[in-house]
Amino acid sequence: MKIFGLGFSRTGTTTLNETLNDMGYKVRHYPRPKSAIELAALKGGSINSQEPNTQYDGATDIPVIPFWKDVDKILSGNAKYIYTLRDKEEWLTRIEKYFEEKRNVSHLLGYEEIMRKTVYGDVFFDRKKYEQAWDRHDKEVREYCKNRPNDFLILDILGGSDKPKKLYDFLEHDNPPEEFSHWNKKTSWQILKNIIIYRHNESTC
Question: Which of 10, 60, 92, 117 could form a disulfide with 17 if both were Cys (CB 3.0 to 4.6 A apart)?
């Protein structure tokens, strides 16, 4: 069984990823697939990984979104999907601030630019395009998964309405913690370190 996060960035994707890892799964955050076949294989590095030959159990964040329905067909339904979301207006505010901060800090990686444009409609924040992308994705996910309650979970991590128990029950795990640890509150130097490592690996490939 494979596990895929279907939420947009800034909906708790990092927290979901690290919680799944704590549960014993090996899950990639922000993988770099170029096709559904690559994503279904779940092998290789990610923006935060130095392990290009690692076999993974799942993946999260927006590189999953262009391919997930084709991946589902490839895996013949042998996968579970976790859709992280938050209040739409709050998401629009947060993603605008986040992307503007990244614009001022450093240039984007080429793959990240492609993913943003594919998923959101533009590399940097455009309210109309991003809101349309949110609405379209939300409708598509709910419609596709409406008859698969055992394979599909909606999870509001950041709003605080959902607790780890909901995720643990969905994946049939015992002993959940009381609360999610919000992993994206890591220090800025650690984020910068990951980017430097990633770019070094890219330049030496």
Answer: 60
Candidates 48, 33, 29, 28; CA nearest to 199 is 48
Q: How many CA atoms lie within 13 A of 84 on its CB side?
A: 30
To 10 degrees, what angle do helices 127-145 and 88-105 make?
A: 130
Query: CB under 8 Å to 138, separation ≥6 — which residues?
Result: 85
CB 173 within 8 A of CB 4: no
pLDDT of 186 over the 60 cut: no
Per-residue pLDDT tens digits for 107-121: 667 889 999 999 999
Give the separation between CA 47 and CA 111, rounded to whole angstroms: 10
Phi, psi of 169 (to 5 degrees): -65, -40
